[in-house]
Amino acid sequence: MATLTKKRKVADAKFDVNKAHTVAEASKVVKEITTTKFDASVDIAIRLGVDPRKANQMVRGTVTLPHGTGKTLRVLAIVTPDKEAEAKAAGADYVGLDEYIEKIKNGWTDVDVIITMPSVMGKVGALGRVLGPRGLMPNPKTGTVTMEVGKAVADSKGGKIDFKVDKAGIVHTGIGRASFDAQKLTENAMEVLNAIVKLKPSSARGTYVKSVYMSSTMSAGIQIDTKSFN
Q1: Strand ranges (DSSP E) for the chain?
Q2: Alpha carbon distance 164, 71 (integer Å)
Q3: Average pLDDT along the chain, 230 residues, taken 10 residues at a time
Q4: pLDDT at 2
Q5: How far apart are CA 180 and CA 226, in angstroms?
Q6: Which secondary-structure segment (H or E) carries 149?
Q7: Are 37 and 52 in contact (CB under 8 A)?
Q8: Per-residue exposure over 160-180, b if at least 16 CB sit within 10 Å of its own CB, e if not
Q9: Whole-prediction pTM
Q10: Could you count the other beta carbons within 10 Å of the beta carbon of residue 5?
Q11: How far from each other are the two terminal CA atoms of the chain, in whole angstroms?
Q12: Rounded to 5 degrees, what angle do the CA atoms 169, 172, 176 make?
């Protein structure tokens, strides 16, 4: 732990914690200060001037990162038999119906994304207690409840992510890995930030994007100047 602390001090000395950076600068800095031996996840946290308790100020959406997430997502397609071949061809890791409903009822959630169809939502909806807290409940707004099962599976495998503001008014999402070059991190981050700016609720008052920080696993947060993209 002492070594890590020493490394962290050296890394943190490479940037000014009080300076607001452009997205491109932050992408370079995050690579410089990441000291983990594994390929760390790079995330951004966006604090919004909204009240998530009000339905008309909920900020939620999806975005396809141009360079993917750097993570191989495990996709479960809960579909009727006539859609199974389509889901498998698109790359779904698990495909089925009642057997997976039963597995999830018994606590199995070893997946990252669940795709399903409108006609199956009655069965899937009953799994809310298990799926809800884990952020796995399919939703038409995020394209995970659809008749276009193959497209939804391919999108999820190809870097499509969904984001949602939490109770504290913060959107927190991954934008790649420390092994990505700075340009790819910048482009992925901008895709997310632009999507969030476009989703500004008409009922939101005052400053919409209050602060943005980029960080990697166990690194310090790097402040991003909201004027540089907003």
Answers
A1: 41-48, 60-64, 75-78, 94-96, 113-116, 160-164, 170-177, 209-216, 222-224
A2: 19
A3: 59 75 95 90 96 91 91 94 97 97 95 96 94 92 93 91 92 95 97 96 93 92 90
A4: 46
A5: 23
A6: helix 149-157
A7: no
A8: bbbbbbeeebebebbbbbbeb
A9: 0.77
A10: 9
A11: 39
A12: 160
Tell how far CA 1 is from the center of its chain: 30
Adjacent-strand bridge partners of 36: none
| Those residues with Cβ within 8 angstroms of residue 26's Cβ, 6 or more apart along the chain or in another chain | 189, 214, 222, 223, 224
d(CA 157, CA 93): 10
**DSSP-based three-state secondary structure for 114:** strand
Strand partners, 215: 43
* β-sheet bridge partners, residue 213: 45, 223
Q: What are phi and psi of 218, to 5 degrees?
A: 70, 5
Please, which residues have CB within 8 angstroms of residue 2's CB and are 6 or more apart in sequence?
none
